[in-house]
TrEMBL record:
Belongs to the bacterial solute-binding protein SsuA/TauA family. PANTHER family: ALIPHATIC SULFONATES-BINDING PROTEIN-RELATED. Residues 25-261 form the Solute-binding protein family 3/N-terminal domain. This is ABC transporter, periplasmic substrate-binding protein, NMT1/THI5-like domain-containing. The keyword Signal applies. It is found in: Endomembrane system. Its main location: membrane. The keyword Cell membrane applies. Keywords: Cell inner membrane, Cell membrane, Membrane, Signal, Transport. Residues 1-20 form the signal peptide. Pfam families: NMT1_2.
Length: 342
């Protein structure tokens, strides 16, 4: 009997491997942030394979490092901010935006004794201040975009101190070298926990639904095999539903994958809701972001960026998921969001 059970288990394993072996494969790069967690959910819950794609995940320490791997064709897909892909594309890289992974998420931290003077809902509290940031980070570009929308001449009224890493920004705030600093998750939670620093504002307070990490792929591969990318995005759409409806298990999946404290992930993801792990392409947000980069003087020449944004594959993936679950409220909300933002 034991031999029979072992034989059946062996056949099951062989069959599973054979099925996986026959699936199209995608090598996917990401940065270790909680808001990139849809990859871990889709992987853990088996959505990638159920949709018909074999995904292998690769972690990178920076957007530049990840996009260099994508350009060298060591990756098929990458999720590395918005700024870095735009810069690569504007310099000739044939990448295409096909989806998203993170909306929002940037925070402005300060020392507790400075919190009162930076409180309120008006960006004018930052006039005359010295702000630490990582140049061309999402926080850099979006904060400047928010300042411009508020009618503030940030080139004249605010001093920006450019630092090499987000850890350097936290250190500068801690030492008082700057009045405040722009950071992304989980660094503001770690700064609060480890150094007693405080979040003065989330940029979402001033600039709702702004684009952060986007999903990019090789243009030639997207055009040659859109079906594989549709399956990939369908799995992420299903993962988004799971993340919205199963917070307890999602926190455990994120914590296991990222080796980050569950309380930090829970606080950022479900309590403060500082970012939304949404796979929507957010075409309008990408184009707004492009304009903010140009306004800041980081790129002088104009560029037809819109031709590098493919929303069709995501829409097909979403339509396919909705056909299978036509009454699902989350998927209906995703469709409404898509129509508004693309």
């Amino acid at each position: 009997m034991k031999r029979l059970i072992l034989f059946v288990l062996l056949l099951t394993m062989v069959a599973s491997n054979a099925i996986a072996g026959g699936l199209p494969k995608l090598r996917v790069g990401y940065i270790p942030e909680p808001a990139h967690g849809l990859y871990f959910v889709a992987n853990e819950k088996g959505y990638f394979k159920e949709e018909g794609v074999d995904v292998e995940l690769f972690q990178f320490g920076s957007a530049a490092e990840g996009l260099a791997a994508l350009k060298a064709e060591k990756l098929d897909v990458g999720t590395f901010g918005t700024t870095a892909p735009i810069l690569f594309i504007s310099k000739g890289s044939e990448f295409t935006f096909i989806g998203g992974m993170m909306i929002g998420g940037q925070a402005i931290i300060t020392r507790p004794e400075r919190l009162a003077e930076l409180s309120g809902k008006n960006l004018k509290v930052y006039k005359g201040k010295k702000i630490g940031l990582v140049k061309l980070s999402t926080g850099d570009v979006i904060f400047k975009g928010a300042l411009k929308k508020a009618g503030i001449d940030y080139k004249k009224d605010i001093t920006f101190v450019e630092l090499g890493t987000v850890a350097s920004v936290v250190e500068a705030v801690k030492k008082g070298a700057v009045d405040a600093g722009l950071v992304y998750p989980p660094h503001f939670s770690l700064a609060e926990k480890n150094y007693g620093l405080k979040v003065a504002h989330y940029i979402e307070d001033f600039y709702p639904d702004y684009t952060c990490c986007r999903i990019v792929a090789h243009t030639k591969q997207v055009n040659a095999d859109p079906e594989t990318y549709r399956k990939f995005l369908a799995a992420l759409i299903r993962a988004y539903r799971f993340y919205k409806t199963n917070p307890a298990e999602t926190v455990k999946i994120y914590a296991k994958a990222l080796k980050i404290d569950e309380d930090i992930i829970r606080n950022e993801t479900y309590v403060k809701k500082v970012a939304d792990s949404n796979p929507d392409p957010l075409r309008k947000g990408i184009l707004d972001f492009w304009q903010h980069i140009r306004d800041a003087g980081y790129i002088a020449q104009d560029y037809p960026l819109d031709k590098h944004i493919n929303t069709t594959i995501y829409k097909q993936a979403l339509d396919g998921v909705i056909r299978k679950s036509p009454k699902d409220k989350i998927y209906k909300q995703m469709l409404t969001f898509y129509k508004r933002n693309n």
